């Protein structure tokens, strides 16, 4: 059947098109999960302490950490959304994107080495060292409240949309 020549039915589905997962699809998903578990097991064996797990034994090059941060923030969603943003807002979006490599270079050369020398495992520890335990506790509560309110808003939006 030529799917390009097929016409959608009233429910939007193309007649004869596959719907749902077939056994081969499930096999691919299972193999992917097993592969991820194997990678986690292999890399986890090298960790001797919690610090090794959280900080990689403090042996990573700051530039590599910066590249990792860069890759984390440029997700698939970014690749899909940037063209639309470019059409809507014009070349201003490109100027913002062009600043990313410069910002990450500065972060990897100036900020990350300082944090690595501080012998901390989280941003909360930096807050505690620089501003005291009270500010750190306040920030933790603030973060918890924001997360809780975000969940509350989502659930109330779902209820209002289902009416």
Descriptive report:
The chain has 163 residues and is mostly helical. 73% of the residues lie in helices and 0% in strands. The chain is built from 7 helices and no strands. The radius of gyration is 24 Å and the shape is extended. The two termini are 41 Å apart.
User: What is the approximate shape?
Assistant: extended
Rg value: 24 Å
Order of helices and strands: HHHHHHH
β-strand number: 0
Write the layout of secondary structure elements.
Layout (H helix, E strand, L loop, with lengths): L22 H22 L5 H6 L6 H12 L2 H14 L2 H26 L5 H9 L1 H30 L1
Helix pairs in contact: 3-5, 6-7
Provide a brief overview of the structure:
With 163 residues, this protein is an all-alpha fold.
Keywords:
single chain; 163 residues; mainly alpha; 7 helices
């Amino acid at each position: 059947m030529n799917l390009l020549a097929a016409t959608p039915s009233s429910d939007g589905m193309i007649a004869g098109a596959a719907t749902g997962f077939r056994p081969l699809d499930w096999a691919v998903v299972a193999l992917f999960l097993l592969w991820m578990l194997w990678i986690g097991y292999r890399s986890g064996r090298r960790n001797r302490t919690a610090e090794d797990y959280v900080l990689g034994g403090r042996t990573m090059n700051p530039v590599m950490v910066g590249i990792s941060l860069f890759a984390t923030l440029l997700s698939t969603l970014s690749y899909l959304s940037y063209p639309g943003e470019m059409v809507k807002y014009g070349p201003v979006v490109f100027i913002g994107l062009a600043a990313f490599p410069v910002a990450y270079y500065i972060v990897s050369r100036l900020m990350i080495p300082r944090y690595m020398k501080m012998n901390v495992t989280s941003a909360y520890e930096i807050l505690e060292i620089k501003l005291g335990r009270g500010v750190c506790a306040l920030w933790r509560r603030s973060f918890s409240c924001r997360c809780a309110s975000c969940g509350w808003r989502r659930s109330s939006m779902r209820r209002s949309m289902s009416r």
